Amino acid sequence: MYGFINTCLKSLVTEKFGEETWEKLSSLAEVQDTFMTYEVYDDTVTLRLVKEACSMLDVSPEVVLKLFGEHFFSFCKQAGYDTMLRTLGGNLTEFIENLDALHSYLALSYQEMNAPSFRVEKIEGDGMLLHYYSDRKGLYHIVPGIIEAVAKDFFDSEVTMTILNQSEEDERTGKKEHVVFLVKQQKRSAALVVEKGQRRAKDPQQQADAFKGMQGRCPGLSGPPPSGQGPLPRGARSHWGLVRSVVLWGKENLRYTFTPSYPDKLWMEEKAFCNSFPFHIVFDQDLKVKQTGVNIQKFVPGLQTKDIRIDEYFTIVHPQVRPSREEVTTLKAEL
Ligand code: HEM
Q1: Which has fewest Cβ within 10 Å: 53, 183, 328, 330?
Q2: Which residues have CB under 6 Å of ligand 1?
Q3: Residue ranges of the domains in the chain?
Q4: Residue 316 — very low, low, confident or very high, per pLDDT cuts 50/70/90?
């Protein structure tokens, strides 16, 4: 595993328990004291550190790994990956769906990386299933630690993650570990929101000052102050109020309830479509190629053969599955 991970473990121990504890831990685990971020260390170094930390603190690997996951998230942000992490998605589902793309991108810097893989399965009703695949065994408790921290910090929500299934040697992907988590997400307690609201209302002077400051910075927003600071004419809405309500509407609602709309048919001719999306491929349940963009045909001329099968030329990188009729049917939203 890259030194980045071991350095993160070291920073967790030194920050939470002090330098001395780290020195004791690293000597008990018989590993070095410092690690180079971009150097690869044997996985046993990390595993030994986790094992010794469990004995020293007299807690289970679940507790240590979860704590590590939580710390890993802030460690990544401090290491300069904050913006990158924020662009992964507008909600937790999108965030998880893009984790493989994130690790693939990171593999440009960490070239020998053997990254885990993640897949979201949407389910009826409440929650979603998170599939975690890894070539390493016994690290899966890191995942709830990271995801819970992400949900709290980026999406202002609490999640609970329950392990539904854990299997070794996943037949489909060849990865050694496959763990399925049931993820349930809840917006942070209504009480907190009310409390925030009360705090705002209690300090009208502060609110008025903030509004004046904002008006100074944005002269275009010259409407009357927000509610509580003078009556608005009937039916009138300040520019500021409008902007604020649009932003808040987006913030509170888009994240949870956005539903796209689709046309009844495609309003585009076949040729125009294939020119506009030059690298697309459409295939049916039997994996037979039905249509392709013009450029991909140049690079893979075999695609012009009638009813050629997609798996004659391509493998699926994400999600990590082997193309088959069953997989295509189950995973059609994710392919
Ligand atoms: C920009 C932020 C991130 C960076 C820089 C990063 C980097 C890394 C690196 C270098 C490794 C070691 C892989 C190896 O040496 O083979 C790793 C492993 C791992 N990463 Fe990320 N990662 C990031 C974000 C995330 C997030 C958000 C998750 C969410 C679950 C995640 C989950 C994991 C897990 C569970 C492992 C342990 C290895 C395994 O399970 O096989 N990472 N990551």
Answers
A1: 330
A2: 1-2, 4-5, 76, 81, 84-85, 99, 102-103, 106, 110, 113-116, 134, 136, 139, 142-143, 146-147
A3: 270-330
A4: confident
